[in-house]
Write a structure and sequence with these properties.
Layout: E1 2-7, E2 10-13, E3 18-26, E4 28-39, E5 46-52, E6 57-59, E7 67-72, E8 77-82, E9 91-101, E10 106-110, E11 114-119
Length: about 120
């Protein structure tokens, strides 16, 4: 079983910055991809930024140029640096990781979510 623990959310004024982190633990053989999603009240969960095992990244159009995803593979940790935050970035941010456990089973795990609130 693979667990994800997120940290770093909070309240910030528009134009400010926040950094999120998500660490995976458990019986991990390899992590193929780590992704940040977010869900605002009354809206569907949406992809924010993704980092694949090959090192490629992709971003939602709404965050391009403002958010940066990065990974520390040795620590099984993914980060999301969020700059120039806007009120519409307010949401619960979730971390997702997919890969294989040490007994070669596929895992697809989610963190508990961390609240990001941007005031205008």
């Amino acid at each position: 079983q693979v667990q994800l623990v997120e940290s770093g959310g909070g309240l910030v004024q528009a134009g400010g910055s926040l950094g999120l982190s998500c660490s995976a633990s458990g019986s991990i053989f390899t992590i193929n991809g780590m992704t940040w999603y977010r869900q605002a009240p009354g809206k569907q969960r949406e992809l924010v930024a993704a980092d694949t095992s090959g090192g490629s990244t992709n971003y939602a159009d709404s965050v391009k140029g403002r958010f940066t995803i990065s990974r520390d593979n040795a620590m099984n940790t993914v980060y999301l640096q969020m700059n120039d935050l806007k009120p519409e970035d307010t949401a619960v941010y979730y971390c997702n990781a997919r890969g294989y456990t040490s007994d070669y089973r596929v895992f697809d795990s989610w963190g508990q979510g961390t609240q990001v609130t941007v005031s205008s």
